[in-house]
Amino acid sequence: xxxxxxxxxxxxxxxxxxxxxxxxxxxxxxxxxxxxxxxxxxxxxxxxxxxxxxxxxxxxxxxxxxxxxxxxxxxxxxxxxxxxxxxxxxxxxxxxxxxxxxxxxxxxxxxxxxxxxxxxxxxxxxxxxxxxxxxxxxxxxxxxxxxxxxxxxxxxxxxxxxxxxxxxxxxxxxxxxxxxxxxxxxxxxxxxxxxxxxx
Length: 199
Fold this sequence. Notes:
This protein is an alpha+beta fold. The protein is built from 6 helices and 9 strands. The chain has one domain (2-24, 41-196): START domain (Alpha-D-Glucose-1,6-Bisphosphate, Chain A, domain 4).
């Protein structure tokens, strides 16, 4: 099972490189080598063009968490709707080819199957954190910690959406998350979604 998940991660990293290597001027030093060996309790900020990635200390869960975020001119409720309704996942999720579960929406304890675009097998997932009052949820894929998703209201008509990965060895997957955030912005501001989701 571990070999399958490692193949899964390698595929995502390969997909990220394929999508972004032609357009993004990556630093000459690999991202993982830029992370200092001594991490202070104060979060560090790594800036890449308009893309901001934060490095935070989480001593009681994972030693480090990397995240990427985007400000979107749409209500937080609409973005939360897109993030928690499965029928939208393949539209904003660059890495997702297919998803299925017992319900069309996720909640705490939701289990289902997800098929990545780079790995033609269905992997089990489980939503183990679900906090609708804080617009936050996280999941596990094949028993391993995966991404977490947070929507932070900024005003009545704008919000910040953040995706985080639990470990620094998953840093390449942030490129996939960045593309997903762009897809979310396009969805959230499209006439079709505006008509069919919360205002």
